[in-house]
C-alpha cells in the first residue's frame, strides 16, 4: 500500500498577488547644484591606523615527561622437533635426522635449493662487495673545522642528597658502560642519610643506572679489569678494598679487613699486568702503596712506605693521592703525593730504599693527576695547584713544558688515547680544557663550561671520542669530541717527538748551566773563606809581635 501525504493551504495566506506591467520613466525630484554650499566644505585631516589581523600569542615552556626504557633479554632455544623427540637426547635427534634425510621430499627440496644457492654463491664470487676503490689515491686533507664538542648525556646521582663523582672507569669492552664512584670528600660534611651506593651506567640510558654497587663505605675510586669486563675493584673512604663480579650481584665478592687496609681514604687503585689478571695496587694518603690479589683480600701481598728518606718510616711518609702504571713498563710505577712530589719507583727492587728510584718536585700542592703519554711513555703529565706540567724521565729538576697559571684549581687530567699531542684538564670552576700542544701551548685549544659546580674527575674512552667528567653536584657529563680532536693527524707523532726532544735538550742545557753557576758560587765561597782565614792569621801575628815589643821595652826600662 502506497502512503501519500497531501498538504493544503488557503490562497489568502500566500499574501497579495504581484502584478507586473511596463510603464515609462518618471522624474520625481530635481535638485539643482548650489555653488555657495562648496565654500562651507571642511577637508578632514587624513590619519593612518595600523590594524593587526592575527591573534595574540603567548610563549610557554613545557617540560615533557621522560621516556624510560627497560632492557629485556630473550632466550632462544632449539625448536621445531616433533613431540615424541626430546631435543636433549642425542640418540633420538640423530635417529630423526637420518629418517628425514631418507625422505624423497627432503632430497627434492635440497636439489631445488642447491641450484639457487649455487647461483648466489657464484654471484658473490663475481662481485667483491668489500673491495676498496681508489686505494692508491692520495688522501685529500679534510677541511680544517674549528675544534668543538657536544654534550651527549648527563648521568645524575639518583639520591636526594647529591655526592661528588670522585672516580670514573670505562667498560673495557667497547666502552658501552661507565662506572662512577660517589662519595663526599669534605671532612665531617657527610650526613647520616647519605647513600653509600655507586653505580654502573649504560651510556644510552641516563634515566636509571644499569647496576648498583653496594660497598660498606663510600667508594672514592674504582677501576674495571681490562682482562675481565665483569670484574671491578674499588677503594673506599675508610681505606678498605672491595672486589665486585657483576654477574654475582651488587654486593662485593671480596672485601679486605679494616686491620689490613689503608688508614686513610684510597684515592687511586689500578689493575696490574699479570698472568692471572687478578693483581691490583692502591695508594692512600696514609703514605702507603699496597699490592693486592683480589682472590684473597685478607692481607696485601706487598707494601711500600713513601718515605723520602728511603728508610720505610711511616711517620715521615708522604700521603699518596695519584698513581700511574703503564703496561709496557711492568716493573715501573709512579706515585703523586699531597706535598707536590712525584715518586718514580721500581717494584722488582729488593729493599725499600732501592724501590724509590727518584723524585720529581714541581707543584705547590697535591698532585691530583699523573699519567704517562700512551705514545711516548718516557714523558708524563702531572696536574696540581693551578698548572699542568709535562715531564721527561731524564730531567729531575724541572718539567719540560707547563701551562700558565689558571684562575681555578686543576683537579684531574689525562692524555688522549688517539692523539699524542692532546690532553684534557678539568677545573673547580666547572670548565673542561682541551689542550693541543702542537697547535698552541699558552692557551687551551677548546674550553667548555660543563656545569656551574666544580669538576673533580675525568676519563676518556679508548677511541678518544667520548669524554666523561664527574662534578661536585653528582652529575657525570658525557661529551663527544669533534673528529679533529680525536683523529690522529698527519706527521703528528714525529712532530711531537721532535718537540719533546727539543724541550728536553733545552732543559738539560739549563740544568748544566745552573750546575756550573752553583759550582762557581761554591768555589767563590770557599776561596773567600780561605782569604778570611789568611787575614785572621796575619792579624794575630801582628798582635803577638806588638805584645813582644812592649814586653822588651818594659824589661829594658
From TrEMBL:
What InterPro entries has UniProt attached to this entry?
Dynein_IC, WD40/YVTN_repeat-like_dom_sf, WD40_repeat_dom_sf, WD40_rpt
Keyword terms, alphabetized: Cell projection, Cilium, Cytoplasm, Cytoskeleton, Dynein, Microtubule, Motor protein, Repeat, WD repeat
Per the record's keyword annotation, is Isomerase included, yes or no? no
Main subcellular localisation: cytoplasm
Quick one: a GO biological-process term for this protein?
Answer: outer dynein arm assembly
The record's annotation in Gene3D superfamilies points to: YVTN repeat-like/Quinoprotein amine dehydrogenase
Bias regions of kind Basic and acidic residues — which residues?
520-542
SMART domains to which the protein is assigned, alphabetical: WD40 (SM00320)
At the highest ranks, the source species' classification is: Eukaryota, Metazoa, Chordata, Craniata, Vertebrata
Q: Does the keyword Repeat apply?
A: yes
Q: Which Pfam families match?
A: WD40
> Which family does the record assign?
Belongs to the dynein intermediate chain family.
Q: Give the region (Disordered) as residue ranges.
A: 520-557
A molecular function (GO) held by this record is:
dynein light chain binding
Q: What is this protein called?
A: Dynein, axonemal, intermediate chain 2b
* GO cellular component annotations of the record: microtubule; outer dynein arm
What is the protein's species of origin?
Anabas testudineus (Climbing perch)
Its domain of life reads Eukaryota
Q: Subcellular location, in the record's words? A: Cytoplasm, Cytoskeleton, Cilium axoneme
Q: Which SUPFAM superfamilies match?
A: WD40 repeat-like (SSF50978)
